[in-house]
Amino acid sequence: MFKLLKSKKGFTLVELMIVVVIMAILVAVAVPIFSAVTKNARIKTCAANRREIVSQVNGLLMGNIDGEQHKAEGGFIIESNGKTGVIKNVTGSDSAYTETNFEALFQSVPYCPVGKDTSVATYTVTISAPLTIGINETTASVKVLCDKHPVDGTEVA
Fold first, then answer.
1. Across the chain, what does the average pLDDT equal?
2. Is the predicted pLDDT of residue 134 greater than 60, yes or no?
3. For residue 7, what pLDDT is reported?
4. With contact defined as beta carbons under 8 Å apart, do 147 and 121 qualify?
5. In the chain, beta strands by DSSP E
């Protein structure tokens, strides 16, 4: 009769509790690491998007042979909800830049991955007119800022 009880296979309650505790410790260590990696990836994606915007706008400025648009000041704003980006409006309405100039720049409009349905992120693109120094003229400067990722790279909630 005792042989029958000892030959039963299975786990005791203590063994199961040890396994559960070990798994809980592993999860407690892994979740903060995963969270930090995800946050870093969003910051780097946003920085890459800002570089892409500057590159595309510079390409548009360099491609303007007549130089009229190149000498103007202006810009535009891209609003994003974390899934898509939309060019909403143009800043500096009296400039030579129009909204349609910029809608055609991107195959898909870049968006900040931080924005969610309740938190809209915006890229503000400012184009400054070139400076004239003597007889040489510098090129126009393009600056892109994200309201969720300041220049130092931290994320704003």
1. 80
2. yes
3. 58
4. yes
5. 74-80, 85-91, 121-128, 132-133, 136-137, 141-146
